[in-house]
Amino acid sequence: MRTVKTLYAISALFAVMMSCSKSDSGSGTTPGTPESSWNMGTYTYARGASSQSSSNVAGANLYIIQATTAGAPTQGVFSGSALTVKFFDQGPGEYTLVSETAFTAANAANKILSIDCSIGTATSTGSTLYNYASGTAKAQVTKVNNQYRVTIDNGITLNKKLDVNGGVAGALNSYSFTCKSVF
């Protein structure tokens, strides 16, 4: 009798968990498109895990979002990616992308954002780091469920900054980059 009750309790718990699970597509997304993703050239990366942190830098609230991909490598040497977004927290709204050198505490009163992206992180053959160097691009920062999300709809150019362990074979010097609801 005790075994039957235990099995019933486990079955009920499983049914509740499955009925409350979140849909893969998320609201307002195209079927098959991840809710949170980014593109480097023709490669699409879906967010697998992420973290958000903030710290006080010279009296300004520096906010950092770090996102990585998950799952089995499916894009050869380009498999796996890691994304880092930094901004001085001015709340939701439109932020101007700036280079790493322009991203300083002296500019913290402005809505500025810096971004870099590594590709090839799921392989043992090397990875390549890219960052935003110049231009007049904008990013949309929103807040959902107390988490910041960053979207860049219009393609920006990320330039190669660093090759790790020889880098990604065949990686270009720059790629067009967009992101959708990265958190």
From TrEMBL:
Domain of life: Bacteria
Region forming the signal peptide: 1-23
Keywords noted in UniProt: Signal
Protein name per the record: Lipocalin-like protein
Species of origin: Sediminibacterium goheungense
